């Protein structure tokens, strides 16, 4: 949407660098008594006065904005996602947003009462769109009964759906979307994970007590409307027992009634007792802390056990003692116990960690086996009666697939004890790989196994030469439906359709193959064009895997890796020691490096060069390609805490690559190990042919034509000498 005439000419746009921010301040503070022109500034972490202004303005408008922890403002300032209009040295309007996946999520747009009617909201929205034009668009939620809800269409937003709010009356919210005009048929930008958070007693009381509690300022952020479709607040049965000990009968009854609004996570009592006892013993052994001496500590151990058994990865509490001892055994529990403010600040990271935790499969052997005859009774556990399936109909369906011989592949995934944890059926016709049944047993690693199976299906389609995958199971669980949508499949006549495009080249070549695949599925797709932004190209390369769009802005980096680490991560070169099963089944990994030189940025593609021919069994060849999702420089302890759910590297190993107390983490996904490794000799030949000098001592950016040549030879042998 265009700005009103001359609106932007009234404002000085100040760049994000410190030098330009200081220039903006100088412009505001000179000129004697003359009022300075307003300026758009990016509020940085050192702009303490402006941060205070933004927090104060947000608090003044908390009735419509909701509660937001002060740490969220600080985090946004560090990430460059807090922008403001400053006049006479003070903020008169601000926008606070985040950048999950490939969208902009607008959390706050706030204009002071005295500055309204001057077009500042429009200016801030358009500034965000200009800065992040490479992303799919801007999304936000607003309560229908708020006056601001009628404003969004005038700012270029369109209604994108409606959901129940988190207020006491569950007043509805409208989801608004401002599109940036990118080809978005396969976008999973809005499919953000639903983070399940267990409430400790103190946070529950903050939210539900009859008394005014100053702690609600922090805990209340979890009940904010902007989190309506991003968090699911749950309680454990232990919370009911704790409330039962409340001395005030009237207040106790009120709180017990309030628990009915929350899902109570149920677990087997014997298993709960056993796990809680293990946690207490672990804390006593390692920390010398006897949790059994206090009823509240015993309850905390039981909360933690209930979360670990049910797959809940986050507990919100204000109990610093609980946070301290639980953090020290987090590797054993897989649960993070955090203050409500920290949960809100780390929301997107926590949601991603919940949906994919291959560390849960550590030291195990999962096996895919064919369904044996007369297995229909065993497969009953995969019936979804909550989706309306009846036993007789389900068994008839299963027996029909079992009776149709080689037309269908019927597979069971079994855990190390031989228990069936997943069941799916695939079949090939002239145009598609069809999946009529796709089930994963509800358990703590359901989301992890779901993601693994979906990638297995995508790779299977590639092997059998089918560019269309269609899931026709009408009774997918909610978890699987979210995962399927996140994988980029689109809903088509009660089925889910996705594409596997084995093309690498410019947008035109990729578009030709994609259009043909879409025609086979009876769909039309938006045309791809050269010069796609790195964010959009990365999203398309994920949802159309294994496609590579080489005339986009997505860069490629050649990363050298020592053979012992390439063997552990990729199985190349092979060693006498068995490969960690966790790494073997993972779609996502982290590789740690020295922070200097800092060459690699995300999103990007990675080509892995395994070094050391003749040493440690090295191969001196490019062995694999991955998609780089994120690059983080931080203290080793912070990186270990953040990525422990992926089950790779110990803290001391990360410390060895750190410099001045900082290490670099590369989070990458969907690695494709080359069947035809590109040797060092051949790599140098290709580099020479494409006029690029190679330096294999550190990471290096590759020209698109060199990536195309290396990837072509490694993945298919095409062009191989």
Q: At the first level of CATH, what is the class of the largest domain?
A: Alpha Beta
Largest sheet: 8 strands, mixed
Helix content: 25-40%
CATH architecture of the largest domain: 3-Layer(aba) Sandwich
Query: Which runs of at least 5 residues are low in confidence (pLDDT < 50)?
Result: 1-34, 187-191, 359-363, 576-585
Q: Which sequence of strands runs across the widest sheet?
A: 1-2-3-4-5-6-8-7
Count of domain modules: 4
Structural class of the helices, strands and pairings?
A: alpha/beta
Q: And the CATH topology of the largest domain?
A: Aminopeptidase
Separate helix tally: 26
Determine the strand fraction and express it as a percent band: 15-25%
Rg, nearest Å: 27 Å
Query: Quick one: overall form?
Result: globular
CATH superfamily of the largest domain: Gcn5-related N-acetyltransferase (GNAT)
Strand tally is 28
N- to C-terminal separation?
54 Å
Mean pLDDT: 84
């Amino acid at each position: 949407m265009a700005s009103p005439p001359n609106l932007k000419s009234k404002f000085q746009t100040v760049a994000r660098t410190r030098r330009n921010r200081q220039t903006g301040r100088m412009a505001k503070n000179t000129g004697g008594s003359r009022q300075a022109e307003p300026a758009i500034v990016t509020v940085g972490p050192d702009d303490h006065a402006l941060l205070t202004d933004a927090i104060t303005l947000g608090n003044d408008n908390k009735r419509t904005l909701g509660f937001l922890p002060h740490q969220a403002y600080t985090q946004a300032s560090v990430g460059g996602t807090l922008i403001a209009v400053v006049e006479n040295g003070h903020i008169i309007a601000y926008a606070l947003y985040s950048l999950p996946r490939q969208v902009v999520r607008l959390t706050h747009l706030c204009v002071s009462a005295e500055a309204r009617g001057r077009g500042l909201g429009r200016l801030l929205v358009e500034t965000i769109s200009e800065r992040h034009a490479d992303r799919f668009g801007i999304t936000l939620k607003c309560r229908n009964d708020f006056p601001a809800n009628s404003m969004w269409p005038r700012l270029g937003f369109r209604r994108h759906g409606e959901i129940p709010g988190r207020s006491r009356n569950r007043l509805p919210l409208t989801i608004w979307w401002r599109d940036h005009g990118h080809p978005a048929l396969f976008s999973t930008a809005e499919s953000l994970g639903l983070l399940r958070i267990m409430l400790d007693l103190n946070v529950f009381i903050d939210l539900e007590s009859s008394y005014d509690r100053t702690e609600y300022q922090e805990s209340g952020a979890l009940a904010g409307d902007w989190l309506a479709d991003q968090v699911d607040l749950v309680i454990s049965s232990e919370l009911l027992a704790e409330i039962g000990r409340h001395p005030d009968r009237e207040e106790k009854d009120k709180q017990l009634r309030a628990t009915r609004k929350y899902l109570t996570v149920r677990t087997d009592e014997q298993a709960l007792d056993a796990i809680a006892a293990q946690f207490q013993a672990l804390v006593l052994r390692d920390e010398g802390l006897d949790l059994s001496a206090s009823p509240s500590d015993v309850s905390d151990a039981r909360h933690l056990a209930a979360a670990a058994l049910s797959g809940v990865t986050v507990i919100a509490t204000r109990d610093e003692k609980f946070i301290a001892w639980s953090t020290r055994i987090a590797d054993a529990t897989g649960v993070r116990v955090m203050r409500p403010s920290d949960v809100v600040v780390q929301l997107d990271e926590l949601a991603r960690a919940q949906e994919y935790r291959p560390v849960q499969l550590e030291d195990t052997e999962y096996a895919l086996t064919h369904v044996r005859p007369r297995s229909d009774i065993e497969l009953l556990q995969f019936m979804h009666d909550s989706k309306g399936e009846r036993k007789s109909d389900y068994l008839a369906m299963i027996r029909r697939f079992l009776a149709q011989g080689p037309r269908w592949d019927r597979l069971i995934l079994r855990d190390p004890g031989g228990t069936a944890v997943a069941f799916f059926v695939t079949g090939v016709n002239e145009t598609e790989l069809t999946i009529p049944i796709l089930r994963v047993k509800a358990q703590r690693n359901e989301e992890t196994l779901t993601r693994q199976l979906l990638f297995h299906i995508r790779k299977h389609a590639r092997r059998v030469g089918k560019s269309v995958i269609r899931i026709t199971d009408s009774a997918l669980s909610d978890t699987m439906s979210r995962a399927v949508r996140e994988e980029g499949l689109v809903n088509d006549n009660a089925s889910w359709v996705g594409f596997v495009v084995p093309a690498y080249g410019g947008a035109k070549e990729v578009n030709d193959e994609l259009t043909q695949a879409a025609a086979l599925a009876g769909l039309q797709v938006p045309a791809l064009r050269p010069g796609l932004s790195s964010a959009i190209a990365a999203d398309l390369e994920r949802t159309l895997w294994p496609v590579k769009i080489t005339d986009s802005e997505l860069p490629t980096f050649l990363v050298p890796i020592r053979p012992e680490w390439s063997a552990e991560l990729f199985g190349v070169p092979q060693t006498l020691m068995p490969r960690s099963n966790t790494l073997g089944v993972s779609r996502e990994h982290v590789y740690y490096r020295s922070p200097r030189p800092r060459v690699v940025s995300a999103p990007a593609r990675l080509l892995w060069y395994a070094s050391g021919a003749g040493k440690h069994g090295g191969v001196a060849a490019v062995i694999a390609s991955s998609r780089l999702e994120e690059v983080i420089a931080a203290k080793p302890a912070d990186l270990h805490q953040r990525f422990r759910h992926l089950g790779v590297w110990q803290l001391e190993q990360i410390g060895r690559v750190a410099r001045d107390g900082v290490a670099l983490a590369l989070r990458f996904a969907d690695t494709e190990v080359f069947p035809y490794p590109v040797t060092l000799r051949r790599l140098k030949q290709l580099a020479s042919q494409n006029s690029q000098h190679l330096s294999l001592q550190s990471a290096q950016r590759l020209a698109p034509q060199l990536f195309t040549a290396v990837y072509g030879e490694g993945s298919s042998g095409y062009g191989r000498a």
